[in-house]
């Protein structure tokens, strides 16, 4: 897998991509495409396709991550994150807090496994669902 990082301040973003990125950067939790659309209706967004096109590009360049289990998106908080490496998230079911992390050892192990079965990964995302210490202690 490619190990180069991406630039989180990419000046080549379109207006819509910039607005979607700003919405995600200002959020304290992952947002669905429809939540983003609702937030940006006053800024010229009229259809879900506008949001999805912007999100697709932002995910492609690694500035945004998609959380499959939540069907939601969040801004990448790690400037050295590589869109072609393994990214992992912890997702608290209590407070909805999401933490992003990557680990070279994990990426290396997954690359070795993929190689052993003659598979070429282009992306790998791990989502760990559970409860943070505060939510677990409150139960």
Any overview of this molecule?
This protein starts with 14 loop residues before the first helix and ends with a helix. The chain has about 140 residues and is an alpha+beta fold. It contains 5 helices and 5 strands, in the order αααββββαβα. Mean pLDDT is about 90; it is low at about 1-5. The protein has a 3-stranded mixed sheet, with helices on one face. A two-stranded antiparallel sheet has the order 1-2. The protein has one domain (about 15-139): Winged helix-like DNA-binding domain superfamily/Winged helix DNA-binding domain (Arc Repressor Mutant, subunit A), CATH 1.10.10. It has helices spanning about 15-25, 35-40, 50-60, 105-115, 135-139, and strands at about 65, 70-75, 85-90, 100, 125-130.
How would you concisely characterize the structure shown here?
The protein is 37% helix and 19% strand. With 139 residues, the chain is of the alpha+beta class.
- CATH C-level label: Mainly Alpha
Count of domains: 1
**How big is the Rg?**
16 Å
Q: Helical content, roughly?
A: 25-40%
Strand order of the largest sheet: 4-3-5
CATH superfamily name? Winged helix-like DNA-binding domain superfamily/Winged helix DNA-binding domain
CATH hierarchy: architecture: Orthogonal Bundle
The assigned structural class equals alpha+beta
Question: Describe the biggest sheet?
Answer: 3 strands, mixed
Q: Care to count the β-strands?
A: 5
Helix and strand run: HHHEEEEHEH
Question: What general form does the structure show?
Answer: globular
């Amino acid at each position: 897998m490619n190990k180069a990082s991406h630039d989180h301040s990419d000046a080549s973003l379109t207006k819509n991509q910039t607005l979607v990125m700003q919405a995600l950067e200002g959020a304290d939790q992952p947002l669905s495409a429809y939540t983003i659309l609702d937030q940006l209706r006053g800024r010229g967004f009229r259809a879900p396709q506008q949001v999805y096109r912007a999100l697709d590009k932002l995910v492609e360049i690694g500035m945004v991550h998609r959380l499959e289990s939540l069907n939601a998106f969040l801004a990448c908080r790690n400037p050295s994150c590589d869109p072609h490496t393994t990214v992992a998230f912890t997702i608290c079911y209590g407070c909805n807090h999401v933490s992003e992390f990557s680990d070279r050892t994990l990426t290396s192990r997954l690359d070795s496994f993929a190689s052993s079965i003659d598979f070429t990964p282009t992306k790998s995302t791990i989502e760990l669902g559970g409860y943070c210490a505060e939510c677990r202690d409150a139960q």
